[in-house]
Amino acid sequence: MENFGIRDIVDILLVATVMYQLYRIVSRSGTGAIFKGVLAFIILWVLVSQVLQMRLMGAILDKFTDFGLFVLIIIFQDEIKRFLISLGSNRTFRFITKIFRSKDVGELNDSVITSLVLACMNMAKTYTGALIVIEQEIKLGNYADTGEALDADISTRLIENIFFKNTPLHDGAMIIGGNRIKAAGCILPVAQNHDIPKSFGLRHRAAIGISQETDAKVIVVSEERGKISFVSQGKIEANITPEKLQELLIGSMRKKKKAKMTGS
């Protein structure tokens, strides 16, 4: 204890911060109980090996920790991915991501925003389901490859035709990037959160899932209720008006431009 100083305090604070952020991520995905179990095992291992210095029990626990890291990576692979995404999107580390970022990624122009809002408004009126993913800094090529490549200009009529009932691409997701429709009929990861309301269907769960794994913005039009929802960072704003959707899209673009001007 005589060597305990500021460096040790900073070390403890950093570990506590990382553990807290990890717990927040895993609790949203429904694996909080497993995380608590792992934390309890680590505390037990430290007590037995370092504090009480029980050699036999410590040796047994040491064997578990030798391959335990690989087991944890397998169990928490999705959570680790989300943690790294949240770390990379943090303002403190954005200077690193700017090195590898395209200048126009995620920035929708006014005509595209207008086309998106009008299409969603019309589809909501006719109870036509839709799932639209807007690419940001994290590339969505892997998800776009699961659907049909389009590389088309964005227009209200084209969006409505793609999501028209009984068409081949109706049930999949549309991915937009660089102010163009990259692909449609795409398959997205489905969120497994236990706290998601049962009233939300597969489209809403897929929207939450892709927004948890990436920094994408997602628009959902409910086929059952004819309502529009906006999803970002795993959080959903349900039953919004077309005016609110336009405000959210413009607002997210303004934040991105402001961040770019601040960083430059």
Automatic annotation (TrEMBL):
Q: What GO molecular function annotations does the UniProt record carry, in alphabetical order?
A: diadenylate cyclase activity
Subcellular localization: Cell membrane
Q: What is its main location?
A: membrane
Output the InterPro entries linked to this UniProt entry.
C-di-AMP_synthase, CdaA, CdaA_N, DisA, DNA_integrity_DisA_N_sf, DNA_integrity_scan_DisA_N
- Is this entry keyworded Cell membrane? yes
Quaternary structure and partners: Probably a homodimer.
The family annotation for this protein states: Belongs to the adenylate cyclase family. DacA/CdaA subfamily.
Name of the protein:
Diadenylate cyclase
Organism in which the protein naturally occurs:
Dysgonomonas termitidis
